[in-house]
Automatic annotation (TrEMBL):
Pathway: Lipid metabolism; phospholipid metabolism
Keyword Signal found: no
GO terms of molecular function: acyl-phosphate glycerol-3-phosphate acyltransferase activity
Compartments (UniProt record): Cell membrane
A Pfam family recorded for this sequence: G3P_acyltransf
The protein's Enzyme Commission number: 2.3.1.275
Keywords per UniProt: Acyltransferase, Cell membrane, Lipid biosynthesis, Lipid metabolism, Membrane, Phospholipid biosynthesis, Phospholipid metabolism, Transferase, Transmembrane, Transmembrane helix
Designated name of the protein: Glycerol-3-phosphate acyltransferase
One of the record's GO cellular component terms: plasma membrane
Species whose genome carries this gene: Rhodoblastus acidophilus (Rhodopseudomonas acidophila)
Transmembrane residue ranges: 6-26, 56-76, 82-100, 112-133, 153-176
Length: 196
């Protein structure tokens, strides 16, 4: 039973950490208003960038990643499984935060943060694949889709079966959250990186 309690605690703590809406908090603290009222209405770093404040967007990106990393590392000393659960639920908390009526970000930064906390080479692989795809395509959304699709395979190659399973579910959710981006990519209307 103690194992079940540990995993339940990891799920709750991970979700609560993940649900901290840094994009919303930072933009309000900077006097930029409610980030949900601009652009896509998303609380993630990409939409925060639309405020024109690169520093706030960068801080959002880092903090959204680190909250998942912190959740995983907090439970890693107890068991690897608890770390995976905490990182996974941090991802869910970011996308479905109870404080914002379950309307959060798209989860890219928090996905990376979860990987870094559970199996850091997989997190670095995600970042490398994202960068390579972005360099070739100039599409941020496509880069996230490709990197997330590769992540479960990277984790399987590392022998991280539970983490690979969690990543597979995270990838499915991330792709669902990017459904509009996918439609625009197919139509050739998706904005490219650096495009005004």
């Amino acid at each position: 039973m103690s194992g079940v309690i540990l995993l339940a605690g990891a799920a709750v703590a991970g979700y609560l950490l993940g649900s901290i809406p840094f994009g919303l908090l930072l933009t309000k603290a900077a006097g930029l208003g409610d980030v949900r009222d601009i652009g896509s209405g998303n609380i993630g770093a990409t939409n925060v960038l639309r405020t024109g404040r690169k520093d706030i967007a960068a801080a959002t990106l880092v903090l959204d990643a680190l909250k998942a990393t912190a959740a995983a590392l907090l439970f890693a000393p107890f068991s690897p499984d608890a770390a995976v659960v905490a990182g996974f639920f941090a991802f869910l908390g970011h996308i479905f935060p109870v404080w914002l009526k379950f309307k959060g970000g798209k989860g890219v930064a928090t996905y990376i943060g979860s990987l870094l906390g559970v199996a850091w080479p997989a997190g670095l692989a995600f970042a490398a694949i994202w960068l390579a795809t972005a360099k070739l395509s100039r599409y941020s959304s496509l880069s996230a889709l490709v990197a997330s699709a590769a992540s479960p395979l990277v984790l399987l190659a590392m022998g991280q079966k539970l983490a690979a399973g969690a990543a597979l579910v995270m990838t499915a959710i991330l792709w669902a959250k990017h459904s509009e981006n996918i439609a625009r990519l197919r139509a050739g209307t998706e904005g490219r990186i650096g495009q005004k």
